[in-house]
Amino acid sequence: FPANWRRTILDMKEKAFGYIDEHRDGMMKMWEELVMMDSGSGNKPGVDAIVAKVAGILEGMGGKTRIIEHENAGNMLVSEFGDCKNKPFVIFTGHLDTVFDDPETTKKRPFTIKDGTAYGPGALDMKGGVTLAIHALQALQSVGFDKYGVKVILAGDEEVGHKHSDFAGKMMEEAKGAAYAFNFETGFMDDSLVLARKGVYCFAMEAFGRGAHVGNAPEEGRSAIKELAYKILDIEALTDWSKGLNLNVGVIEGGTVHNSAPAYAKMIVDMRFTDPAMLEEMKGKFQEINDKVYVDGVTCKMTPVSLMQPMVELESSKELFELVKKVYEEEGFGSPKAITVGGGSDSAYTTMVGVPTVCAMGVKGGRNHTVDEFANVESLFMRAKLICAVMLAL
Q1: Residues 6+ away with beta carbon under 8 Å from 76
Q2: Spatial distance between the Cα atoms of 159 and 165, rounded to a whole number of angstroms
Q3: What is the pTM of this model?
Q4: How big is the CA angle at 391 (ends 389 and 392), to the nearest 5 degrees?
Q5: Distance between CA 193 and CA 326 in Å, rounded?
Q6: Fewest CB atoms within 10 Å of the CB: 173, 271, 278, 389?
Q7: Sheet bearing 112-114, strands edge to edge
Q8: In terms of Cα–Cα distance, which of 304, 224, 228, 313 is closest to 270?
Q9: Parallel, antiparallel, or unpaired for β 149-155 and 193-197?
Q10: 196, 310 in Cβ contact below 8 A?
């Protein structure tokens, strides 16, 4: 390296940090504006509106921006900075939808700051992460960073596992050839960063029996609920913690009145798994359970609901984490550890095409997916500085 190389990098880092410090108010304003746009996954107009807003911001920064429209899901956003076709590029990724589908959620729970903590739907998951990623990119632009191109990829239907779109395939296509990827998903209060996540497979199982009055003709009834009761035990018995496999029957419904044999029942099953190879094997076991008859005359049917593949831990991701950790500690931000978590994310699709990936780079907080969701305000600025320093250190 040239003799003045390290000094140049340090100067760029200090100026990038200065940019973040000078734009704290603007970062807070953007964070609030994004949170105050209701964008539950089931609210396509709301999701598309926030996608369009962020697309405008990125386009205004000079990004070559595309909105990929989905008919029955929130749209997808891709914005490229620099030459992402002929030179190495880094992916900044995340999502703009939340789990709160009520289009008036923000009227009931607006963005609020109290004692250094931010509250509001999606403040943590993950509009804070989107905000800091955008401003980190602006800070890097301000110091002339051009070693890598940057491709921003934002989903509009992550929280429902892309069950009504082909986002996963498009994401993998966009990710091919990337040098590194950072997902600005929700950060942890203890500074942990994620290198692996379980996959999520969700399916419904319906039972079709025969209704009958349980007082006048009980022997004529065929209980759909009873059939599923046996199957619930069979499904949950497949949990194998040693393999990172766990099953949960999270929803069950059926019947009409207490004095009639239930002719119909339905359950929704959630499977978490670590190895992509497990999926087809488990689908076969579910089919066997579906086909087995406990209550004579009851039939069952399975229907897939959604799938998010596991984020597999790559050796290259471990190496990238070590760099992030080194920068984290050198800057006095803390000492992160690498963890595996059960919740899925779109980092699965960058690792599936071999891109070293570190996830959970967003604002720190907790209780996401609940009305008590919170985010640490200071981490908005700290994590923006972190990604600037990491990009300069790559």
Answers
A1: 51, 67, 68, 70, 153, 154, 155, 156, 165, 167, 170
A2: 12
A3: 0.91
A4: 65
A5: 13
A6: 173
A7: 112-114, 117-119, 374-376, 364-366, 187-188
A8: 304
A9: unpaired
A10: yes
Mean pLDDT score, 211-240: 97
Q: For residue 272, how many C-alpha atoms fall within 13 Å in the half-sphere facing its CB?
A: 17
- Residue-wise pLDDT for 121-171, tens only, equals 999 999 999 999 999 999 999 999 999 999 999 999 999 999 999 999 999
> What pLDDT, on a 0 to 100 scale, did the predictor assign at position 57?
98
Starting at the edge strand found earlier in the chain, the sheet holding 199-208 runs 246-254, 264-273, 199-208, 299-308
The CA distance from 348 to 157, in Å, is 15
Give the Cα separation of 376 and 394 in Å (integer): 27
Length of the chain: 394
Q: Is the predicted pLDDT of residue 1 greater than 70, yes or no?
A: no
Q: For residue 350, what pLDDT band results from cuts at 50, 70 and 90?
A: very high
Residues 209/222, Cβ–Cβ less than 8 Å: yes
CA distance 18 to 78: 28
Residue 2 has pLDDT above 70, yes or no: no
Q: Cα dist. 59→56, 63, 67 in Å?
A: 5, 5, 11
Sequential DSSP letters for 87-99 = S-EEEEEEE--BS
C-alpha Rg value of the chain to the nearest Å: 24
pLDDT at position 3: 60
Q: Are 318 and 338 in contact (CB under 8 A)?
A: yes
Where in the chain does DSSP place strands (E)? Answer: 64-68, 76-81, 89-95, 112-114, 117-119, 149-155, 180-183, 187-188, 193-197, 199-208, 246-254, 264-273, 299-308, 338-341, 357-358, 364-366, 374-376
342 secondary structure, DSSP code:
S
Helices 224-236, 278-291: inter-axial angle, 10-degree rounding: 150
Half-sphere exposure of 386 (CA within 13 A, CB side): 33
